[in-house]
Each structure stands twice: as structure tokens, then as C-alpha cells.
Amino acid sequence: MSSDIGLIILVGVWLAYFLIHSxxxxxxxxxxLAGRYPALxxxxxxxxxxxxxxxxxPPLYLTYGWQGPWLWRWTGIGWxxxxxxxxxxxxxxxxxxxxxxxxxxxxxRQWQARERNVEDQEVLRISPLHRHVRHPWYTLALVLxxxxxxxxxxxxxxxxxxxxxxxxxRLEERKLVAFHGEAYRxxxxxxxxxxxxxxxxxxxxxxxxxxxxxxxx
Length: 217
Fold this sequence. Notes:
Layout: H1 3-25, H2 27-36, H3 44-55, H4 57-65, E1 70-72, H5 76-96, H6 102-106, H7 108-113, H8 136-146, E2 150-151, H9 152-180, H10 182-190, H11 204-215
Antiparallel strand pairs: 1-2
């Protein structure tokens, strides 16, 4: 198999992954399933996350198994800078976990409570990182991806994931607006999506006001 064909296959596999992931995450599919198989809803988030991880195996296998030449590799001071930034991203990700309801995110809380609501029930929380970007985990993931050495397969994967984060974040925000209403709309207007900008950020007091606005009866 030629390198070009291998990269085309990799693009197709990533597109298939993103399409399946987006469809299964949509409220339309969840409502359809709730209407026909309501007993599955408490386990939906758990099964969705498990399925998403398993579906990552083919594109990652193709990415890491590709034997083409390197387009660029970090050396010297560039190696230290790239890996230092990557380590900082990992540290920030670990630190940010305290501000997430991990059981809600994984789906174990919904399963244990036999929760049958289609929409996620987690309240709007604006963590310190959320005061700078609306999707800090996506931002940190992009830092990790783009600080790696790049060959053709890694570049295809980096571009594909970047584009999906841009599109997927917009789709996710539609659901968040539907669930959190005006509180999230106000947040959207004031904080950038993926790239932090110093002039567009929330103070701690601003974040508390938005959160309190949502919680008002």
C-alpha cells in the first residue's frame, strides 16, 4: 500500500469516527432511544464513552503504524520548549479535574441513580480555566497534539482532530445553550472557544455572577 493511499484511508477512518461520535452524542439520537428503549438510558453515557474509546483504536493504530518520513522533529531548545509546554498542559489537565464531576462525565452517576433524563444534569460550573476558554480540555489536547514530532500520519491526525474540536465544540454548545439557557449565552459572548485571549476573559466575580444567574428560580 502506497503512503498516499494510507493517508487517504486514515482521513476516511477519522471522518467515520467523528461522524459516529457526533451522531451518538446528539440529543436527537438520545430522544429516539429514550422513546424506544428507555431502560438503556441510565447506561447510555457509560456505553457511549466505552464505544468512543474502542472506536479510537483503528485511527490510532493507522497513525502510529505509518512508516513515512518525518516532516519535522523537535531538537535542541525546541525539544525542551515543546515538551515543557506539553508537560504544563498535562499538569493543567490534572489540576482541572477537581472542577469536574467525573462521575457525571463518565456516566457512572447516571447508571447508579438509574437516571432516565436525556440531557446531562450537571449544573453550569465555570472553573478557573473556563474563565479563559470555553473548552479548556480541547485546548490542552491541541497543545499536546501540536507539540509532537510530525510525519504525514501525525499531521493528518492533528488536522483532523483540530477541525473536529472546532466543529464539535459548536455542536456541544448548542446543547449547552438548550440546557443552561441565557446563562450560557452570556458566557458564550464573553469567553473565546479554544484560543485564549487576554482581553476576553472572566474574573472570578464575573464567573460567579453567571453561575448565580442560572441558579436563580
